[in-house]
Amino acid sequence: MADILSDIEIARAAKLKPIVEVAQKLGINEDELELYGKYKAKINDKFLCRKEKERDGKLVLVTAINPTPMGEGKTTTTVGLGEAMNKIGKNAVIALREPSLGPVFGIKGGAAGGGYAQVVPMEDINLHFTGDFHAITSANNLLSAVIDNHLQQGNALRIDPKRILFSRVMDMNDRSLRNITVGLGGKSDGVTREDHFMITVASEIMAILCLSESISDLKARLGDILVAYSYEGEPIYCRDLRVNGAMAALLKDALKPNLVQTLENTPAIIHGGPFANIAHGCNSIRATRLAMKLADYAITEAGFGADLGAEKFLDIKCRAAGLTPSAVVIVATVRALKYNGGVPKTELAGENIKALEVGMCNLEKHIENIQGFGLPVVVAINRFGTDTDAELDILRSMCEKKGVDFALSEVFAKGGEGGIELAKKVVAACEKPNNFTLTYPDSFSIKEKIEAVAKKIYGADGVDYEAAANRAIKDIEALGGEYTKYPVCIAKTQYSLSDDMTKLGRPQNFRITVRDVRLSAGARFIVVLTGAIMTMPGLPKVPAAFAIDVDNDGNITGLF
């Protein structure tokens, strides 16, 4: 059935429960919800305060190998695992990120799972949802407008237009906006200067929303955003422009986690959505903590491969929130590992033991990385019909040698029923010894932190810094205070353990090149740009938008 129907057709045929019913089973009263139609709602602070002192459930992180053009099914596995947990009698809640319109209309598609392991209503989640991303975009661009208005109205803070650090954003892939000139025209049209756009999911406002614990924390973090430097070299913060209160007003509802459900009516909290290749790749701390209060098992995911999403989840989010995962699931596919072993995309359906053995090194490195964090690991093989028993036996044998559990996952085709083996392995893993350790301590210098991630997680021989990066690091160090104690958020290609997307498998004898470094003082981390990574993606030659349509009855087609 899953081979015949599209994701959106499967989602549309689902029998959803009113979200009030889903909430009631979690102990959430109707007056603790803010309804957005019949099937989605925000959970307000009244409930969050009521649950604050209750015990936490176990936290399970789902990550993956480096992604390939075929996709590995990380979100699908996360959703299916949550459904399977409930099928084996465990109380589980899923915590996911919200999809960005950029990939939805670009090349990657949506992020609501797939087949019979989806969160629904799928169309709503993949498009405007509850408006969180629009609120983030508006708050970000309010600050940008105030910066340029300040320049126009006399520039009392003596902001140097050539040292404005804060960029405009929009939640769409548009390479033409990466580098722009604003203020063209007459005297009343503003000060002419170079500006830039990032995609909303890479913005500091997105990170701040996901890392804030309350309205007061949100407002303080917004005020801490380093906006620019003055002509005299003094730092200018958002609070100096007196706009963080207005920005918080735009974000007050976006700060509340969203409640939806899966095709099997398993509760799912979806909130926040920073990319992992250019941002910190995790849903909100509030959503994760809420899931842990609501269930015995909170199943969450981190973006892209474990070298990006899992590293940032553990080194940034867990550090900030004091979280310790009980187990980590690494998702892989036979075809993706064969692709890492050099097989062209068009030839992946045939059995190729040699290529699988070569490509397995990518999975092995991710296993070693998670074991290096001191956490129990389960490898989930997202099974396809072309996988042979011989190929699966090789993967099982490798996992045994690495000392990790192995499970086949067929949740795409079978929903929760196809994840029962995985769910049992995860429950067992959660009871294993846990020696959670971060990649580096706060006391390391900025360069020591970057090099720790590059060497330990990526397997690099070292790090090279371009002149702009060295200047930026000196500027941050000159500010003093707590800034040098912040963790690093490394922006890197998702397709390789290196910063070169063409180096598949487990690259050897390579160095990471740091192009620039930016202080996200409100998010309380340091962004490190490596290789050719862009914070505003572009559309492909044939965007997914070409296939998306809506009929006269308002039914959307073409989403995937």
Q: Describe it for me?
A:
With 560 residues, the chain is an alpha/beta fold. The protein contains 19 helices and 25 strands. Strands 1, 2, 3, 4, 5, 6, 14, 15, 16, 17, 18 and 19 form a twelve-stranded mixed β-sheet that branches. It has a four-stranded mixed β-sheet with strand order 20-22-23-21. A hairpin with a 5-residue loop joins strand 1 and strand 2. It starts with 6 loop residues before the first helix and ends with a strand.
Observed structural traits:
single chain, 560 residues, alpha/beta, twelve-stranded mixed β-sheet, 19 helices, globular
Fold topology:
Layout: H1 7-13, H2 19-25, E1 33-35, E2 41-43, H3 45-51, E3 58-64, H4 74-87, E4 92-96, H5 101-105, E5 113-114, E6 117-120, H6 122-126, H7 132-152, E7 159-164, E8 168-170, E9 180-182, E10 193-195, E11 197-199, H8 204-211, H9 215-223, E12 226-230, E13 235-237, H10 244-251, E14 258-262, E15 267-270, H11 285-294, E16 297-301, H12 306-321, E17 327-332, H13 334-340, H14 353-372, E18 377-382, H15 389-402, E19 405-409, H16 411-414, H17 420-429, H18 446-458, E20 462-465, H19 467-479, E21 488-491, E22 511-520, E23 525-530, E24 549-550, E25 556-557
Parallel strand pairs: 3-16, 3-17, 4-15, 4-16, 8-11, 17-18, 18-19, 20-22, 21-23
Antiparallel strand pairs: 1-2, 2-14, 5-6, 6-14, 7-12, 9-10, 12-13, 14-15, 22-23, 24-25
Helix pairs in contact: 4-17, 7-8, 7-10, 9-10, 13-14, 14-15
Compact description:
By secondary structure, the chain is α/β, with parallel strands linked by helices.
